[in-house]
Amino acid sequence: MAIRMTGLVSGLDTDSIVQELVSAYATKKDDSVKAQTKLSWKQDAWKALNTKIYSLYKKIGDFRYDSAYNMKKTTVSDSTKATITAGSNAIIGTQSLQILSTAKSEYLTGGELKRGDNSEITGKTTLGQLGYSDGANTISVETKDGTKEIKVDGSTTLEELVKQFNDAGVTANLDTKNGRLFVSAKNSGTENAFKLGGSDSVLKALGLTEDSGANRVEAEDAEIILNGATFKSSTNQFNVNGLTINVTGVTGDRPEDALTITTETDVSGLYDKIKDFLSDYNDLINEMTSLYNADTAKGYEPLTSDEKDAMSESEIEKWEAKIKDSLLRRDTTLSTVMSGMTNAMASAVYMKDGVSINYNSITKTYQYNGEDIVDSSGKTITTSAQMKIYANANGFKAYNLSSFGIATLGYLNAEKNEYNAYHIYGDEDDTSTSGKADQLMAMLQSDPDTVVGFMKGLANNLYNAIDGQMKSTSLSSAYVVYNDKQMAIEYSDYTSTIKKWDKKLEEMEEYYYKKFSAMETALSKLQNQTSSLTGLLGG
Fold it and tell me: Are 80 and 251 contacting, i.e. CB atoms less than 8 angstroms apart?
C-alpha cells in the first residue's frame, strides 16, 4: 500500500474524509461479508444436522427387514454341562441334548529327567548330560499337516528342543521344577493328534517313551446326540440348526440323562430394540423441533473486525451463539423434512397375517409379501389412496403406534419442543408414561409377529420419507436433505461480490486521494504565489 502524505498544506484530516466518502462502498462490502459468514454458519448447521438424519436413515434401513428382529434366547436345563446361544434361524421350541464326550487334546507327559551328576534340570541342560551318547540323530513329529524332523546331538539343549517341537506343529514346555517335558497337540480332537518317532534313544533320554515314564492321554472328539441325531466335533463347540452349543461336561447316553434345550422369542430384546428405535427418532425430532422453533435473532448480524475489537471474547461468543442458534428458525426445508418424518410415524400400517403392505421407492409400487399389489382390473397400485381402498377391501387391518400403547404427549403435556416425541406406555424409564399399562410388552408376549410386522412397515414408511428428501437434484447432492449445491453457489457468488467491492473501494479511495492531492498542490502554489506577492509589495 502506498504511503500518502496528506493534509500538509490544507491541514485537513484527509484520511478520515476519504473514508467517509467511500463509507457507502465499505458498508456494501461489509454487508456481503456478513451475509457470507452467516451462510457459512448455516452450511455448518445443516451439515451437522444432515449427519444425524443420515445416521437414522441408515439404522431404519435395517429395521425394514426380518433380520433386525430375529431375536431368540435359549436356556438349558443344566448349564454346568453346556451353554447354548440361539441364532436367527434357531427353531422355537424344546429339544433334547445328550453329551457323550467332550473334546480332548493329545497330551504327553514326559518321565522325570535326571542328569548324571544329579544336578537340577534347566533349559541349558544338554542331551549328553541326560545320558544320550549316540551322536547326531533325528526326532520325527507327525501331525495332520505332515511330518517334520528335528535334528539333535549330544550338545542339543532342552530349550532348543522345546523351540523345535513348537516349530514342528505341537506345543512343548519344560517344567524345570519337576524336571519333565510336556508335549501336546495344538488343538483338540482326533484329527489334531500327533505322533513322535525317530531315534528311540533320543526319545528315551527325553523321557518321552513309555519305558522312560511317559504318560499319554489320547485325543478325543466331542460327541453329542441332539434330538436323536449324532454329531461329532474336534472342539467342544457345535453349530446345529441355528444353535451354538458349547459342551463342558458329559451327561451319559441314557434318554433320561438328556438335557432340555428351550428356545423362545427374546421378548425383552425385541422390546429394547423398539425402545432404542424410538429413542433415536425422539432425539433427532426433538433437536429438529428446537432448531425450527428457535428464538429470533432479529437485529443480530455477524460482527466486523472493528466491532469485535470493541467487545470482549465472551461478548463476541454470546453474540455469535445468538445468531447460530437461530439459523434454521422457521426454515422451510427443515419444516418439509420434519413434516415428512412426523407424517410417516403417524401414518397407518396395513397388515394381514403378520405381514404389512410396504411402498417400494425404487419401483414406486405398493407391495405385499414382496409382490406388487394390483387392483381388481389388474392395474398396479402406485398411490396411497389406491392402497387404502385395496387394503380395506381385502381384509387388511390398519395399525398405528397407538395400537401398541405408543403415543406422543401432545402440545399441552409435553416438554418444550418435545411434542413430536413418542413414549411407550408402561416404560419404567419414562416418568411421563410409566404408570400406564404396558401394551407393547403384552403384545410382544402374545403376538410378536404382529408387532414385528408393524415395526417393519413403520420403518419402511419413515425410511421412504427421508429417502425422498435425500434424492440428488440440481440443488442438492445425494443423501443430503438440504440444498447444499445451491448454498455452495451462493457462497461462491458472495466471494466474487466481495472481491468486486474490494476493487471498487480501492478505486474510489485512489480517486479521492488524487483529488485531495491535486487540491494540496494547488493550495501550495497559491501559498507560494501569495508569499511572493507579499514580498514584492514589501509586506
Answer: no
